[in-house]
């Protein structure tokens, strides 16, 4: 009989939702996945909110550790890195640097680009255009991408030559600059890092799960994604 995989992941195809999928695909470990359907508000259901008090995705349950539940995508990556001893350097300084860039993503890139996306891709199509908010979030996102660009000068990845959970957390957000309408013009180190991760088969496989959303990356049927995305936020 095959052993039940340890990790059960609850997620959807979003920038935060992809982070643990990228980790698990890159680590080549077995896992189970449940798709959380926002259109049915599954993320707010009683059973799910027992696992994730914030009612958002992603969440993991470690079935190999008495069904221990972890929410917050940064904490999930950190937990998985410690469990599998992967993508988090052992060296104390490199480890701290990895966590610094992970926090930079969680506190900066994610929230700012998320708001840039919200105001342009969700609020505006519903008739709420707010130029002040758009300018603030697009400008701040660009500034943060410039910080990343500088950090990546002369390095393959955010913390040197090693691919870490900082790269895993940052890539789906920064790579979705098209959806946030933030320019990456002139950011050549950032663009080279995109190219490097675009070529990682495991990461690209992860972006197909639970389903691909090529529009976030400027490809495919943009209009359909716009409509379904806006629909999802209608009653929020
Ligand atoms: N800080 C949280 C943010 C999670 C989050 O915002 N998830 C979004 C998708 S990217 C979500 O579940 N949205 C559905 C909702 O707000 O109801 C994390 O990193 O895990």
Give the SSE map.
Blueprint lengths: L6 E5 L3 H13 L3 E5 L10 H6 L7 E4 L5 E4 L1 H12 L7 H32 L7 H22 L12 H10 L2 H4 L7 H11 L2 H6 L15 H11 L4
Helix pairs in contact: 1-3, 1-6, 4-5, 4-6, 5-8
The protein binds glutathione (GSH).
Give a written overview of the molecule.
- The chain is α+β, with helices and mostly antiparallel strands and 236 residues long.
- It has 2 domains: 7-84, Glutaredoxin (3-Layer(aba) Sandwich), CATH 3.40.30; 92-232, Up-down Bundle (Glutathione S-transferase Yfyf (Class Pi), Chain A, domain 2).
- The protein is 54% helix and 8% strand.
- It has helices spanning 15-27, 46-51, 73-84, 92-123, 131-152, 165-174, 177-180, 188-198, 201-206, 222-232, and strands at residues 7-11, 31-35, 59-62, 68-71.
- It has a 4-stranded mixed beta sheet, covered by helices on one side.
- Strand 3 and strand 4 (68-71) form a beta hairpin.
- Helix 1 runs parallel beside helix 3, helix 1 crosses helix 6 and helix 4 runs antiparallel to helix 5 (131-152).
- The protein is globular, with a radius of gyration of 18 Å.
- It starts with 6 loop residues before the first strand and ends with a helix.
- Glutathione (GSH) is lined by residues 14-17, 38, 43, 55-58, 72-73.
């Amino acid at each position: 009989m095959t052993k039940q995989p340890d990790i059960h992941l609850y997620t959807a195809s979003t920038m935060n939702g992809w982070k643990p999928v990228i980790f698990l695909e890159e680590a080549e470990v077995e896992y189970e996945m449940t798709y959380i359907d926002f259109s049915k508000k599954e993320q707010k259901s009683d059973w799910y909110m027992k696992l994730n008090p914030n009612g958002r995705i992603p969440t993991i349950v470690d079935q190999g550790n008495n069904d221990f539940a972890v929410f917050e995508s940064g904490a999930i990556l950190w937990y998985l890195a410690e469990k599998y001893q992967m993508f988090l350097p052992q060296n104390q300084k490199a480890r701290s640097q990895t966590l610094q860039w992970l926090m930079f993503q969680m506190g900066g890139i994610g929230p700012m680009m998320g708001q840039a996306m919200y105001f342009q891709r969700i609020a505006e199509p519903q008739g709420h255009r707010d130029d002040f908010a758009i300018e603030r979030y697009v400008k701040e996102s660009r500034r943060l991408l410039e910080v990343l660009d500088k950090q990546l000068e002369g390095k393959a990845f955010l913390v040197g030559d090693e691919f870490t959970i900082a790269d895993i957390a940052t890539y789906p957000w920064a790579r979705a600059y098209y959806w946030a309408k933030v320019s990456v013009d002139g950011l050549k180190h950032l663009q080279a890092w995109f190219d490097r991760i675009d070529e990682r088969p495991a990461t690209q496989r992860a972006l197909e799960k639970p389903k691909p959303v090529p529009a976030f990356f400027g490809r495919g049927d943009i209009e359909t994604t716009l409509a379904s995305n806006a629909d999802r936020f209608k009653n929020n």
